[in-house]
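Appendix B, record 7
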Amino acid sequence: MIMTTTEQDLRREAIRRRLQGEHRRDICRDLNRTTAWFDKWWAEYRRDPATDFADRSRAPHRSPQQMPASVVQAVVTMRQMLEQATTPQTRYGLIGAHAIWARLQELHVSPLPSEPTIQRILAQHHLTHPLGAGTSTAYYPWPLAWDVNAIFATDIITKYVRGGEEIQNFHTIDHFSHAVCLTQHRDKTSRTSCDHLLHSWATIGLPSLHQFDNEGTFCGGHTHAHVLGQVVRLCLFCGIEPLFTPYYEPKRNYQIESFHSLWSSSFWSRHEFTTLNEVQAETPLFWRWYMHQYYPPALANQTPAQARRCATIRRLSAPLRILIPAGRVPLTAGMLHFMRKVDPSGAVEVLNEVWRLGPKWSGEYIRATINTQAQTITFWHQASAEIAWHLIKTRRFVIKEPVHAVLPEFRRKSLRCRDYLPG
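Structure tokens (predicted):
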């Protein structure tokens, strides 16, 4: 059981264990609480699955000065957009309450919140930062590919064909050679994501590390704690270590974001697609051009195909594919990693659970690594590229299902992620 120190932690632990099938009396006995206490918080969770299990204030639920939910959402969304700095207009702009107030005024948001109100909304949504935390002053330990197929990144870009049909475009890129694999679908469920990954690994090979953002289809969702989703399970089953980038920082996935831009300008914007079949029929032509005629700036006058010419590629062959269960993939021994920025209170969120590291780490980037076999979660910090990873803390990560060994066919004989990411 995870060591808990606060009443909120106890409530959260009780509900987590109940969701995993434990009996109410057993939970109450272990946590030294009454069944009435459990019933109260079980009812609260069922009423609001997103509850933080905090004691409810006795203050009036509404006040004449309370901001409408639409205005609160506008403040939160504007802050996130300014922090991401993905457009020329926001790249060098400020992100504080005054900057948000000015943007909302330009958009004629009504009622227009004051700057103190905006600051209060940001604090309530954990979007405030200590001095320096919102800048690049904290070192970010970029994952650096050491060879072909060492690190892959996968992302989804949504587009609409004429007539309004939504197309989910899955893109995977090899960080080292910039080789890509593209598939298109009508949805982005976990099953579809797994199908894309299987196709990618069969086409351009099996990576050691596979990087994702925090899209729900990749991480297992944003509702329940400790959920190891199908994408994570599939990676671990195939001997691949998933790595999740920090929240709201697409720049940490810049390789795939750069490819999105090239694909949008060189492929999508040059056609007027009307159906998914048209997109799928045209994609191989673009893929061949990109792999054999395009010269990515990072490859020093080489195409992706040329960069992979002498590499030993291990693909997901048909015999290996048969070993993967068709339904729910069992949990396999392995590592999965989460890059996170420590919030002002000294905490990070991993798999919908808050882990406290201490205020001294506020504003720093840390790596959380879950070892499914040892059932631990470790927190690591790297101060600079020249300094080795430093272990901050180790905690239990209880998994209430069997954890199987990696099949011999998927075991690695080459350089492993452990040589790059200790854990």
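Remarks on this record: The two ends are 21 Å apart (CA to CA). Residues 276-293 form the longest helix (18 residues).
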